[in-house]
Structure formats: structure tokens, C-alpha cells
Amino acid sequence: MKSTELVGAIQRSLAELVTYADELRDLDQALGDGDLGITISLGANAVIEALGAVPEDARPSEIARAAAKAFANANPSTMAALVAGGLLAGSKAWADVEDVDVAAAAAFVRAAGDNIAQRGKTQLGDKTILDAIMPAADALVTGADGAAGLEDAIAAAEKAVVETRDLQSRRGRASWLQERSIGLQDPGATAMLRFLQSWQKAAAVVAR
Ligand SMILES: [Mg+2]
Hints:
Pfam families: Dak2
GO molecular function: kinase activity
Bound molecules: magnesium ion
Protein name: Dihydroxyacetone kinase subunit DhaL
InterPro entries: DhaL_dom (IPR004007), DhaL_dom_sf (IPR036117), Dihydroxyacetone_Kinase (IPR050861)
Keywords: Kinase, Transferase
């Protein structure tokens, strides 16, 4: 996927992601403060708008950097800052990328996950967005080319999201619930899954 297609695919996928805002708000309400729906909506809409102003000849790394900036500035939450930092780390992984394929997507998601783990002082199993990001990155790295690679990443993220229900929240506001967090699905991990599913829909338009 070249830059011009990339901008459209990101915009369409984020417009789709916003349709999950109520689900994310409800999941976050059960575990935290319920602001995740707003964080995702404001962030996604800010990115859609910002990418409308990106020059035609922008490289994929520049597009990702513009998205990171817009997402960070749209909302002051911790989640927005962590996701934006992840997007920025992903943009650096694309320094030499002209054409975004599964390998490039894998490098992006991995770099974003590593950054979020570091800045959020989070590890796998803490019941956070990382629990969906890392399995998705693994599936993209080892998986098939093209649409099948994305399908594998979605399957891995979906499995991980279901598994978060059995985990105790170790980070953020959700950790205040301690054992009472067990049984509830992690909103951040769910947001990552919904993004991948939204991306699949958006990228299918490009592939046609
Ligand atoms: Mg929250």
C-alpha cells in the first residue's frame, strides 16, 4: 500500500473504529473511568482530519507521525499519550518504508508495543492493550503475506482479548479493583482488536 492509499485506508479504518466507541466506553466503565470511548472517538476524528492536510507526497513515516501528533493532542488521557507514543515509535520503524506491506505492519505494531510496554511500565498479562498488540505483532511477523497475515493477527488478538477476562488488572485505574477485575474484558486490548478489524474492512476497499 502506497502513501495515497495509506491515508485513505487509515481514515476509513478510524471512521469504522469510532462505531465501537460505546462498547469501549462500557468496558472501560466496568473497569475504570469510562473515558476510553471518548479518547478513541476524539483521537480517531483528529487523525482523520489531520491526514486530510498531509501533502500528497508524504512518506508513510510522515503520515504515521502526523497521526501520532493528532491523536496525542486530541485528548489529554494517559491512554491517548501511550497510544500516540506507540504510533510515533511505529513511524520511526517506517523510516525506509515506501510501500506498507505485512512486514512493514509487523515492524510498526512491534515498535508500538515495545514503546507502550516501556513507557507504560507494562508487561504481557497485566491486562492492558499490550495483551492484544503483542500477539498481533507475533502473528504478523510469522504469518502469511497480504490479507491472510491480517486475518492471523485478528485471530490472535481476538483470542488474547477473550483471555484478558481471566486476568487481574495490574495497571492504571483498573488495578484498583484488584481481584474484582477478574471476569471483565480489558477495554484497551479490545480497542486494539477493533482497530485491526476496522483496518481489515478499510484495506479490503484498497485491495479491490
Ligand atoms: Mg479510562
